[in-house]
Design goal:
Elements: H1 8-22, H2 29-36, H3 40-43, H4 50-73, H5 78-95, H6 97-103, H7 109-112, H8 116-130, H9 138-158, H10 168-184
Helix pairs in contact: 1-4, 1-6, 4-5, 4-6, 4-8, 5-6, 5-9, 5-10, 8-9, 9-10
Length: about 200
């Protein structure tokens, strides 16, 4: 246990590590204070509240996740980029369950615009999808499809929700193939038949 050198960054990193060990919802300021060998009140000069800490964790984990995705998709396009993006997302979610849970919380909109992590996430995700010829509002719809598919799959896998004997990785690969086909044949806004 180390007392010296507390900072918002150090506290946030310790909280993220703790979240991976015990679960995001189980991270408390009291547990962190014990980790650092200080009283709870000592943390409040660095983080305002548990909500503030969780927001900081979300930004930290979001930055780590997009760094991993950016490395995976670099120099790739189309299906190769999608598969690399999906693989990096899944690996992060399974390897860092507490950090991943932090990336799923709702963040105060006043903080979103100033977040370099969220801007970078949008740039990389939208950039990958623009290679499919998508523009707004289809880009937003496609992002929501990817996020809900990836998150749902990872949540089910992490929770042991897939009981069939088929290898989970093979089903993941098929899901990515299906997403690629869906993106290639996207029902573009304004092309629907209203009859």
């Amino acid at each position: 246990m180390v007392r010296a050198g507390l900072s918002p960054e150090r506290i946030t990193a310790a909280a993220a590590d703790l979240a991976d060990e015990v679960g995001f919802e189980n991270v408390t300021l009291s547990a962190l204070a014990r980790h650092f060998g200080v009283k709870d009140a000592s943390l409040y000069s660095h983080v305002r509240s548990l909500k503030d800490l969780r927001t900081r964790m979300a930004f930290l984990a979001g930055g780590e996740l997009i760094d991993r995705i950016a490395t995976a998709v670099a120099g790739r396009a189309g299906k190769d980029a999608l598969a690399a993006f999906a693989g990096a997302y899944r690996e992060f979610a399974l390897e860092h369950p507490g950090r991943y849970a932090a990336t799923q919380i709702r963040i105060d909109q006043s903080l979103v615009a100033g977040s370099p992590e969220l801007r970078r996430t949008a740039e990389i995700t939208y950039g990958m999808l623009r290679a499919y010829g998508l523009e707004e509002p289809d880009l937003t719809d496609a992002v929501r499809l990817l996020r809900s598919t990836f998150h749902g799959y990872c949540a089910l896998e992490a929770g042991g929700g897939f009981g069939a004997p088929r290898e989970v990785r093979r089903s993941w690969d098929k899901a990515v193939d299906a997403l690629h086909i869906a993106l290639e044949h996207w029902p573009r806004e304004g092309t629907h038949d209203d009859d």
